Amino acid sequence: MNIEQIIQQLKEYEGPELKIMEVCGTHTASIFKSGIRSLISPKLRLISGPGCPVCVTPTSYIDRCIDYAMKDHHVLVTFGDMMKVPGTKRNLSQVKGDGGRVELMYSPLEVIEKAKQNPNITYVIAAVGFETTAPSYALTIEEAIREGIRNIRILTALKTVIPALEWICENEGGIDGFLCPGHVSVIIGSAAYEELSNKFNKPFVVAGFEPEHILAAIYDVVRQINNSEKDNPSVHNLYKNVVRTEGNQKAQNIISRYFEHGDTMWRGLGMISDSGLYLKSEYADYDGGSKGLDKDAQLPVACRCSDVIIGRANPDECQMFGKACNPMSPYGPCMVSSEGACGIWYKNIKREYNDEN
Amino acid sequence: MRIDMSHGSGGKASADLMKKIFAKHYSNDILNKMEDAAVLELRGRIACSTDSFVVTPVVFKGGDIGKLSICGTVNDLLMMGAIPKYITAAFILEEGLEISLLDQIVSSMAKAAAEAGVEIIAGDTKVVEGEGGLYINTTGIGLIPEGREISASNCSEGDVVLLSGNLGDHHACILSARMGIENNIKSDSTCLNGLVNSLLENDIKIKAMRDVTRGGLGTVLNEIADASMCGIEIREEALPVHPEVRSFSDILGLDPLYMANEGKMIAVVAAEDAEKALALMKQNEDGKDAAIIAKVVHGKGVTMKTRLGGSRVVDVLYGEGLPRIC
After folding, report:
1. Residues B5-144, CATH architecture
2. Does the CB of A193 have a partner CB in chain B at under 8 Å?
3. What is the CATH number of the domain that holds A83?
4. Structure pTM?
5. Hey, which residues does A7 pair with through a beta bridge?
6. Which of A194, A249, B171, B292 has its CA 20 to 30 A from that of B208?
7. For B137-171, how does the pLDDT look when each residue is reduced to its tens digit (9 = 90+)?
C-alpha cells in the first residue's frame, strides 16, 4: 500500500469516531507542520498527549527554580523552553529580567565546566525531561563525582511515560489507540507498552517522525481497532531500524544507577504514582530539594487541561480558552506548549476569534 | 591592547582611539569636517531607518557585527525602494574589548558601506563596564525616487511572492557558534542593493518588499497579509532550505519558517511579472536559490499547502525561537 492509498483510506474513513493520541511532542509538531489533520476524516480525532515534559511541570517546581535564581551565589541553569512556563507569580523569563541569574544550556554536561571555573557559585540544573533526557543528567552527576565537583545540584522534575499512559487509559471515555513516543521508545523499547496494551486492550504503534510514518501508524491503529473482534490489539513497531524491542540497555542502566521512582505532580493532570524519577539517597548531596514540589496552586479551577489532554473536551469548551489563557500568558500545559492541543487550536481559530472580540 | 574606561572619557585616550581606528577607516568630506553634526543637502522623499546590533559572537562564519550593522540598515532602506545614501554609527564598547578586534569590525563596516554605496557621516563611542562585548547602532537615510510606491499594504489577490534564497542560514550559523557545533553553515549577511536594483531597473512592478530577519518568513508574510488585508498561501515544497540547515533545525526542533536571515528578502509582484522577476533574481549571486514560494489569495492570514497536500495555518512567531527539548 503506498502513501496516497493510505491517505485516501484515512480520508474516506466512515466508521465510529476514534480518538488517537500521539504522546510525543515531536510527533505533535510533525502532525501540525504537515497538516495531517486536514488530510484525514474528521471522525479520526488526533489528541495531543502530555508529551512535552516542560509543559507538565507544576508551579511549585518553577517557584523553586526562581528561588535559586534569586539566591546569592547560585545560578539556575535550564533548557530554553522552560523560560515561559508560569510559576505562582512569575516565570523564569520575567525573573531573569528582574535580575535573577538564569543561564540557558543545550546539554547539562556544559555545567561541569562552569562549575569548575566558578567554585564559589552553586549551579542548580533544572532537570526536566522524560527517559530520553534522564541519562544526560545521570552522566552529569557521574562526571561531577569523578572530578570531585561539589557545586552542582540537580532539581529534578523528571517523568516517565508508562505510568502517565496508564493514568490516561484508566480514565473513562478516553483514548482508543496510541502513537507511542518515538524518542522515549528508543530508550525504553517497544516491549514496554505490551502490558498496557494487554491490560486495556488497545493498540500501541511505534512510529518515526516523517509525516508518511505518522500516517502509516494512524492507519495501523485504525486497522487494529476495526479488526479487534478477530484479533486483540497489540504493540506494533513500525520504526524497527531505530527502536528495538528491548530498548537501549545502556541508557536504562545509567538511569537506574542514579535514579529511583517516586510519585510526581503533572501540571493540569494531578499526582501520578511512581511516574517521577528522583536521585537515590546515596546521591542526596547533589539534589536541590526535588521532593515535595507538588503544588499546582496557581492553576485556576476553570482550567480543563486534564479533560483536553485525554480528549474528553475540546479546547474551546474551556471557559478560559483564548481569554485569560492564551499563548502569551498560558496557564495549563495544553497552552504552555505552542504545540499542545490548546496552542494549536488557538492558532487555527485565532483570527475568527479576534474578529468577534 | 584592550578597551578601558578611559577610552570613553572624551579625553586623550578617546581622541587616540578616534584617530587610530575610526578616522583610519572612515573618511569622507562630510565626516572629515568633524563638526557637532553632519550637514546634508537632500531634496525629495527621504526614507530613514535605525537598528541596533547586539549579536554574539561578534565574528561568525560569513560576517561580523560590523558588516551586519551596515547591511541590516541598508536593507531596510532598500525594502522601501529608497536609494541608501548616508549612515551613522554609534558604538557601545564594554571594557576589556580587544582593540584589534574593534579595528577588524570597523574595517569590515567601512568595506560593507563602500559596497552598498553609503557614506558614514556621524558616529559616537561610549564605554561601559562589562566583559569585552560590543554593540552597534546604525541609522540610515535614503532617497525614494519620484513615483516609486512600495509598501506592505499594496498587495492584492493574484499577486505572487518571491523569496531570494535559502531560509535560516544566519540563525543556524549563530546558534551553531554559540553551541560550539562545528559545521559548514555560513551567515548570509549581505547588502541587497544588487538584487533590488536589478528588479527595479528592469521595470518589475514591485508591490511590497521585506527583508526576512527576526521572526522569519512566517512573521514577515503575516505582516504583509495583515497590512494588505488579504491571505497568503505558501507552497511548502517551494521553500528553499539548505540541507545542512534543515537537519540542524530538525535536531533542535526549530522551524526555518521562523528563523532569521540577514541577506534574504521577499518581493511581492504582479503575477505577469513573476517569471521575469525570478530570472532576474537568479542572475544575482545573492539570489541564485530564489523561488516563487507563495501567492496572495482572498481571505486572511497565512496558510501553507504541505508536501502531502494538507493545509495548515502559519502564525507569527510567539516569544523567542528557542530550541525545544521534547
Report:
1. 2-Layer Sandwich (3.30)
2. no
3. 3.40.50.11740
4. 0.84
5. none
6. B171
7. 999 999 999 999 999 999 999 999 999 999 999 99
